[in-house]
Amino acid sequence: MDVSIYEVMKSCGVTAGNTCCCDFDRHFGSYAGIIFEKGFFFLLVINGTATLSDSYVNYSLCRGDLVILTPSITSSIYNFDTDFSLRIVYIVPSYFDSLPDGQPLYNQVSRYLGNYRLSVFKIESNRFSYLKQTMLLFGDRLNIMNVYHDGIIRNLCNFFLLQIADALCTENNDTTVYVKRENEIFRNFKKLLVENYRKHHSIGFYADSLNITTTYLSRVVKSVTGNTVCFYISKMLFSDARRMLECTDMDIKEIANTLGFSDQSVFGKFFMRKTGLSPLNFRKKNDLQRRDK
C-alpha cells in the first residue's frame, strides 16, 4: 500500500512555521511507496536506491540525488532497497511564493517543468554534505526560538533556496542566474493553475488574472517551456482524472463534475484523446492489472 507524504510527515516530521522536515528510510512502516503532491518538496537521497515516477517517466535514484517537486506535480517513490534513506524538507506553497529567494531557484528548474521531466539533480560530494547539514536545521531546535522565530525560519528558507540555486547554476550552465520576467509570469501562471484548473479550463481566465493578454501568456509559456497553455491545463486535468480512476471509487459522472467538465460525455472524449480508452475501460483495465500482480 502507498502512503501520502503528508501521513509520513504527520508521523515522523518536525514542523516549524510553514516548513516541515523528516527523514524516511526503508524500515518506516510497511508501505510500498510514498506519494508526493500539492507541495514544494526537496528530497535528498542520503543512501541506497529507489525509483521515482510520475505519469510519464521512471527515474533511478541513488545517494547524492536531489529532487525538487512543485505543487503541480504528483509523483511517487517506491522500489526502495534495504539501505534506502531520504531527507525531506517541505515548504507550504503559499509561503514559498512569499520568499524573495524562491524565484532564483524556480528559474533553475523551470526548464524541466514543460518537458515531461522531473527536476532530478546529482549533487557533487562537498555540496551534498553541506546541503544535508542545512536540511537538519529544519528541526526541533527552530521551535525553541521564541522572539525571532518567524524571521529565523524565513531567513533559513531563503538561505536553503539560494544554496540549492547556487548548486544548480553549476549544472545548468546554459541557464541565466538572473530572473527573467518571462519566468516570473510562468511561475505565477503555474501557481494560478494549481489553484484553479478544476474550475477554469480556458486561457482567458489565467491571462486576465495575470493582467496580460492571452497572446502574451501563450508566447511566454511557449518560450519558457516549449509547450502551450492548453498543454498545462490538460496535463493537470488528466493527471487528476487518472488518479481518481485508479485510486477512488468515484463514478465517472462525479469525476467529470469534480474536474469542471460540462458533462460526462465531454470528459469521456477528453480522456479518450489522452489514452485511447474511455474512463470506464481505463478503470477496468487498471483493476485487471492489479488483480494479476
Number of strands: 11
| Order of strands in the sheet with most strands | 2-3-10-5-8-11
Shape: globular
In DSSP terms (H or I, runs of 4 or more residues), the helix count works out at 12
Largest sheet: 6 strands, antiparallel
The string of secondary-structure elements, in order, is: EHEEEEEEEEEHHEHHHHHHHHH
Average pLDDT reading: 86
Which structural class matches the secondary elements?
Answer: alpha+beta
Helix content: 40-55%
Q: Which parts are unreliable, with pLDDT below 50 for 5 consecutive residues or more?
A: 174-178
Beta-strand percent range? 15-25%
> What does the radius of gyration come to?
20 Å
Question: How far apart are the first and last residues' alpha carbons, in Å?
Answer: 13 Å
Describe the structure.
With 293 residues, the protein is α+β, with helices and mostly antiparallel strands. Helices cover 51% and strands 19% of the residues. The chain contains twelve helices and eleven strands. The protein has helices spanning 5-12, 93-98, 102-113, 125-136, 149-171, 181-196, 203-209, 214-225, 229-247, 252-258, 264-275, 279-292, and strands at 2-4, 14-16, 19-25, 33-36, 40-47, 49-53, 58-62, 65-69, 75-78, 85-91, 119-122. A six-stranded antiparallel beta sheet has the order 2-3-10-5-8-11, with helices on both faces. A hairpin with a 4-residue loop joins strand 6 (49-53) and strand 7. Helix 3 crosses helix 5, helix 7 packs across helix 8 and helix 10 (252-258) packs across helix 11. It starts with a strand and ends with a helix.
